[in-house]
Amino acid sequence: QVQLVESGGGLVQAGGSLRLSCSASGSIFSDNYMGWHRQAPGKQRELVAIISRGGIITYADSVKGRFTISRDNAKNTVNLQMNSLKPEDTALYYCNLGPPYNIWGQGTQVSVSS
């Protein structure tokens, strides 16, 4: 069974940076995308960034110009470089392996103080 393991969350001051990583186990050949979603207390889970195997990227408007997603197909990993962090970025960040797998990681906490 495929599993996802996230790392890299933490507590930073506004304007700081964090780099999230997610590794998928097993053989993966046909996923449409890997990416990141986040959920803040009292809010719905929302898309942050996704990237297809071919390198097509979609970002949420709120993170464009600040976050960069990348993927290594050979290693089945996806990374999210987060710069110029804001307090409103505070959330639990989940790695996602998209269709047909539809698997989610356990989440890694990102907290940004002002």
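Second entry:
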Amino acid sequence: QVQVVESGGGLVQPGDSARLSCVGSGSSLKGYAIGWFRQAPGKEREVVVCISGGSGYGKTYYADAVKGRFTASRDNDKNTVYLQMNILKPEDTAIYYCAVDSLSVDCADTYYNTWQYDSWGQGTQVTVSS
């Protein structure tokens, strides 16, 4: 069974960048689709991106709100998935979660649904404010 832990959140100014890390333990992440989600106060948890493993390794599916600004990547040697966030906006403020779809090597058709994922990190707070 795999566990993931996020890190890298904090307070940043609009227009700044941050990189989040999702470190796996207990099992390799390389064969799993990994999702990044975020949840702002009073709002539903929403997908940020899904990044595939398997034959589609590294293929990404981004939410429209972050396309062109956020980039997901993987480093198998470090058993880590990253979320590079550029040109951050106040509306990006949320708790960011890493999630594992242990039944999918590639992002599923329903990658945007939280129920697709069975292992979740504790979340890391990203606050974008001047």
